[in-house]
UniProtKB/TrEMBL annotation:
Residues 123-147 are annotated as: Disordered. This is Plasmid replication, integration and excision activator. It comes from Pseudonocardia lutea.
């Protein structure tokens, strides 16, 4: 079967209104290999590279409160550096390259729901004058399931 765990998606599919870095980039801990006092960084199963995480704010005004901030994991040999803060803005606008999504069922007490895990190969400052590509089909402003 050609379907893998991770589905490639465009930045505009996931963040049609853009995204902003709201945390530091941190190493993701491998809880199976770590022990007390000896943390081990998680390695990406496909590339073998160390995994880093960053929290981003989804700029979609219609996103539910619980879906406003999402974590994107990046596989990279060195700690990725977020784009610079723009003058007059409290957050750093960001675009992700090689973005993928993995849907999974999140146990939420007696109410399981579909949730999404995001991965990327790199992050960069948005291209000057670029706008996120609108989602194809459906409501272009709706992003409540994607984040």
């Amino acid at each position: 079967m050609a379907i893998k765990n991770r589905f490639p998606v465009s930045m505009g599919d996931v963040f049609p209104h853009g995204a902003y870095v709201v945390s530091e980039v941190e190493a993701v801990r491998d809880f199976d290999k770590s022990s007390a006092g000896r943390p081990v960084q998680q390695l990406d199963k496909e590339s073998g590279l160390p995994v880093w995480s960053v929290s981003v704010l989804d700029a979609d005004p219609d996103a539910r409160r619980a879906d406003k901030t999402v974590v994107v994991k990046l596989a990279a040999t060195h700690q990725p550096v977020p784009p610079e803060t723009l003058a007059g803005m409290p957050f750093r606008p960001v675009e992700f390259e090689g973005l993928t999504v993995t849907p999974y069922v999140q146990e939420n007490g007696g109410r399981p729901r579909v949730a999404y895990s995001f991965r990327a190969t790199a992050m960069r400052a948005p291209t000057v004058g670029s706008k996120p590509t609108p989602r194809s089909g459906g409501n272009p402003g709706s992003n409540s399931e994607a984040a």
